[in-house]
Specification:
The complex is a heterodimer of chains A (446) and B (153). Chain A has 446 residues and is α+β, with helices and mostly antiparallel strands. Helix content of chain A is 19%, strand content 29%. Among the domains of chain A are: 125 residues, no CATH class; 185 residues, Beta Barrel (OB fold (Dihydrolipoamide Acetyltransferase, E2P)), CATH 2.40.50.120. Chain B has 2 domains: 83 residues, no CATH class; 66 residues, Arc Repressor Mutant, subunit A (Orthogonal Bundle).
């Protein structure tokens, strides 16, 4: 209907205009109500659906933010599925390549190196390359020799640190097969096989720092290798670790296990016809679950330091005629206690290597004379046998300047053996825990 | 006084006038409706939906007629024609409107004079929007037939 027609209708009704409207709204009741209305928030004038919808959205946003913050605060860097916070990025004007057209981006974060390899060309390799790295240290020094085949580029960086640290980084091609022979052989062979090139891809991998420490410990108990199978990039500059207090102590007696090693059973079996084992057994991680493992909550209760640390040095010493292993650990993350990240501490635990002639049970009970120059290896009852460069969760207690495992054996050591984020008990792998459970236990019992 | 408030006042006044057919009474009822609206539990602000005001005014009109049946008839019966301000230009349209039922007249007033949305009218009368639309079309058709095609609304 048109405006004109509406006006005609309005006129046809013949309704006179009201007279008292102005005077009516000047009454005090309306003056008060107008004041009240001004105090009403604009929010009340918004349609109810929008009003309540916005309240619900705001509530969801607040809850989501709070939940996200809590998760972030709890997971922190410990969760290995998370990318580490990048604190430093090295980039050059021209992207680094590995000679096959793979662009390599190396990002260093704390004690971890993240590598992105971008394959931009589809060049087919002609043959395989081999990289052999040999390390020997009979004289207490570590010599590193790197050989690469077919003229492909390999970079070796050797930089003595503060007189005791040498960092070596070797970059093989995109795929690598690693064969490590541990025990008492001072040799590691790495074979690198170059795979067929693929379309443009980007692969990220975490590369642990390869660090050797020259010293007087020629026994290499284990060699480390990256958990993931990704390519290892060229790291030409040694990566310096973060600062922290060096709180290590030097034991009064240090054994350089450079002779033959014999197991406890052999020397204690006096009169038996068993032949000595020339190189002795290298103790492995226990696989059975003969001992009951304490729950994490119990470990938290009985410890006053809970840390995640990386083994930097292993020293064999003895206390009261029994072998003791001192493990110098760099604290990656202090979960509870007075230690700070980056501190280096000494942790002593029962078990280790020592000369047979000083071994208390041997001295008391006697031992075959032919073993007098041997070293006895005594890792029993699930005692912790550390591996260098590996990272563990330690439940410790103070003993002066020295720290000790709160259960004095592998019960109080956990390790993420497969990079799954689950930390398995060193004494019994069937027991595992998570970072969150540990921190929750600390929050509950500490 | 805001324009919006004055407009509401005029709408309620017309609504009441259509029922009581007296300006003074319609203004009294309109003002009473506004005062009761201020005390209404659902009152939030004067800018609120006008539907409550229509309802209060309609109830007051009913009360007015109920009271009037018990009162004696006044001597001076209000005479529409005596109202000097009431000027009806289109007598034929006025007569056509007068021929409608009170409910239909009220519907035309609400929709085309007060220009209330169909939603408000449907809530006020308790009829669906479609029913109101159909009824309005029917009323307009009736008016057209009464006025002839040349004077169609």
């Amino acid at each position: 209907m048109k405006r004109k027609e509406k006006e005609a209708l309005k006129n046809a009704f013949g309704i006179p205009e009201p007279l008292g409207a102005d005077a009516f709204f000047e009454r005090p009741e309306f003056a008060e109500k107008k004041e009240d209305d001004r105090s009403i928030l604009l929010f009340h004038r918004i349609p109810a659906a929008l009003r309540y919808g916005s309240i619900a959205l705001a509530a969801v946003a607040v809850i989501g933010l709070w939940g996200g913050f809590k998760n972030w605060a709890k997971t922190d860097k410990f969760d290995k599925n998370d990318q580490p916070g990048v604190t430093e990025t090295t980039a050059s004007a021209e992207p680094a390549t590995d000679g096959y057209g793979h662009e390599i981006i190396v990002t260093t974060s704390g004690e971890q190196t993240v590598v992105d390899i971008v394959t931009t060309t589809a060049a087919e390799p002609e043959d395989n390359d081999t990289v052999t790295t040999t390390a020997s240290g009979d004289d207490g020094q570590v010599n590193v020799t790197t050989a690469a085949g077919n003229g492909t580029k390999r970079t070796t960086a050797v930089k003595p640190g503060n007189g005791r640290t040498t960092t070596t980084a070797v970059r093989p091609p995109s795929k690598r097969t690693t064969t490590a022979t541990g025990g008492h052989h001072n040799r590691t062979t790495t074979t690198a096989v170059k795979p067929p090139a693929v379309q443009t891809t980007t692969k990220r991998t975490s590369v642990p720092l390869v660090t050797t420490t020259p010293g007087t410990y020629p026994v290499v108990l284990a060699t480390t290798s990256p958990k993931d199978e990704g390519p290892v990039p060229s790291v030409t500059d040694p990566i310096e670790k973060g600062g922290g207090d060096d709180r290590t102590v030097r034991p009064g007696v240090v054994y350089n296990v450079n002779g033959k090693v014999v197991g406890v059973n052999e020397i204690m079996a006096v009169g038996s016809n068993s032949d000595p084992q020339p190189d002795g057994p290298t103790p492995d991680r226990p696989t059975d679950s003969a001992i009951p493992v304490k729950p994490v909550t119990e470990l938290v209760r009985s410890s006053n330091q809970v840390i995640i640390g990386e083994v930097e040095e292993i020293i064999f010493t003895s206390e009261n005629g029994y072998p003791v292993t001192q493990t110098n650990i760099r604290v990656s993350q202090s979960l509870y206690g007075s230690l700070s990240d980056g501190d280096i501490i000494s942790v002593r635990s029962s078990g280790g290597y020592m000369p047979v002639k000083d071994y208390a049970p041997a001295k008391q009970n006697g031992y075959p004379y032919e073993y007098r120059d041997y070293y006895v290896v005594d890792y029993r009852r699930h005692q912790f046998n550390p591996s260098r460069y590996n990272e563990y969760v330690f439940f410790l207690e103070n003993d002066g300047d020295i720290f000790r495992l709160c259960t004095d054996d592998g019960e109080s050591v956990y390790q993420d053996t497969d990079g799954s984020g689950r930390y398995r008990c060193w004494a019994d792998e069937s027991f595992s825990t998570t970072y969150r459970k540990i921190t929750d236990a600390i929050a509950t019992y500490k | 006084m805001s324009i919006d408030l004055k407009e509401k006042y005029s709408k309620i006044y017309r609504y009441c006038y259509l029922r009581v057919n007296d300006r003074a009474t319609a203004e009294d009822i309109t003002q009473e409706a506004f005062l009761r609206f201020l005390e209404h539990p659902q009152y939030q602000s004067l800018d609120q939906d006008i539907r409550i005001l229509y309802t209060i005014a309609g109830n007051l009109c009913k009360d007015h007629f109920r009271k009037q049946t018990h009162d004696e008839l006044p001597e001076d019966i209000p005479d529409d024609t005596a109202d000097g301000e009431r000027l009806i230009e289109d007598i034929s349209l006025h007569q056509a409107l007068e021929s409608l039922s009170p409910e239909d007249r009220e519907l035309v007033l609400l929709r085309y004079v007060n220009e209330e949305p169909l939603g408000v009218i449907s809530q006020l009368l308790g009829i669906s929007r479609f029913a109101i639309d159909r009824r309005l079309r029917k009323i307009l058709a009736s008016l057209r037939s009464k006025l002839g095609k040349e004077d169609a609304v």
